[in-house]
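Why does residue order matter? Because the sequence determines the fold. Keep that principle in mind as you read this record.
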Amino acid sequence: MANLSVEQVEALSPTELVNYLNLNKDGLFLRDDHIKTLESLELAGSNFLKLTTQKLTNHPYNFPEGPVERIQDFISRLNSQRLLNLEEYLSNTIPYIIYSPHGTMSRSSTKVSGDFPTEVRLWGEFFNNVNSHTFDQEKKFQRPTFVNNFIKTYTTLPKVSGQPIKIIFY
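Structure:
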């Protein structure tokens, strides 16, 4: 079979589609009269990709069951190659979630010490809330105050046995 992508098949004109099907008729086990029927209806590539089993078995095609199934398989293989845009991909992709082997799966929220949580938050929201909270009811990031006179030194020196001594109080 000639390998064309679904986008290339979709862009085929009616005559190009007939040539493409003639190249693939041995793999699809189609007779010349089947291809002539498709040629007489002047199907383009985009029309061919939309053919259904019901259309192929009814008038004007009237194909027998064998060729219908082979054509349908061929069309579905082509359509499965279609690339999805990002939005379609994300809507069809199930996010991968890993559960802890030590956890339990239930439909209810987890009990902590026998009580249900009062509120359930996302991590980002939780951390933003914690970072904006001040625990001492003072302004956040207040400049620290330093005690300058923590160590007091007295310069009045008493004399004990003739030698002056320095006294430091904490």
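Residues 14-28 form the longest helix (15 residues).
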